[in-house]
Amino acid sequence: MQKIFTFSNLLSTFRLFLAIPMWFLFNDLENSGTRYIILGIAFTGMVTDFLDGYFARKFDEVSELGKIIDPLADKVLIGVVVIKLFLIDKIPDYLFFMVIGRDILIFTGGLLLSAKIGKVLPSNMIGKLTVTILSLLLILIIMQVNESTLIYQLIYYITLGLIVVSFIAYLIRAFEFINRKSHGTV
């Protein structure tokens, strides 16, 4: 129980629940005040994403629940934003399918891998970087930054590349752990 009710897990749970107001706020995205509230929630999500891992390591609160709820909170919050932007035609179809498809495959694969090797793998740096850069892209879209600017184009194409690279990295990592499990080193 002590490893469940930790400050880091509470931060991850808080981030998970940020998806609820985010969903409803997108109904009024054309209002500049609403966009700033969404921006505040997005930055709160990014900060809590950094802090939950920091506190888990600093205070030795790393738990199996934390390894599940942290990436789940990321996926739900990002998923809500991507779904809403897709529904209101603010992102192209392929970006929607890349983000949602990657997250579904990684989450499902993570569950299957956990069942096979008997433990939950923590998030890795490439996954965290992908979520961070994707979040920056989504913020640019929400704030209606001109798509032809250099910063927008740079973040956009880096995001597309990271989505692919991080998915491949997750596949490689999964096969490594399956291989280690078959050799009894997990």
Could you explain how this protein is built, in words?
With 186 residues, this protein is mainly alpha-helical. The chain has a single domain (7-182), classed as Four Helix Bundle (Hemerythrin (Met), subunit A), CATH 1.20.120. 78% of the residues lie in helices and 0% in strands. It is built from seven helices and no strands. Helix 4 (64-87) packs antiparallel against helix 5 (93-117) and helix 6 runs antiparallel to helix 7. The mean pLDDT is 91.
Q: What's the quick description here?
A:
The chain has seven helices and no strands. The protein has 186 residues and is an all-alpha fold.
Task: From the structure above, extract its key features.
mainly alpha, 186 residues, 0% strand, Four Helix Bundle (Hemerythrin (Met), subunit A)
**Main sheet specs:** none
CATH structural class = Mainly Alpha
Beta-strand portion reads: under 5%
Counting DSSP E segments of at least 2 residues, the number of strands comes to 0
- The geometry reads as globular
Q: How many domains in all?
A: 1
Q: Please, what is the average pLDDT?
A: 91
Low-pLDDT segments: none
Structural class: mainly alpha
| Distance between the ends | 25 Å
The whole-angstrom Rg is: 17 Å
Q: From the 3D coordinates, which CATH architecture would you assign?
A: Up-down Bundle
Order of helices and strands: HHHHHHH
User: Level of helix content?
Assistant: over 70%
CATH topology name, in short, is Four Helix Bundle (Hemerythrin (Met), subunit A)
Number of helices: 7
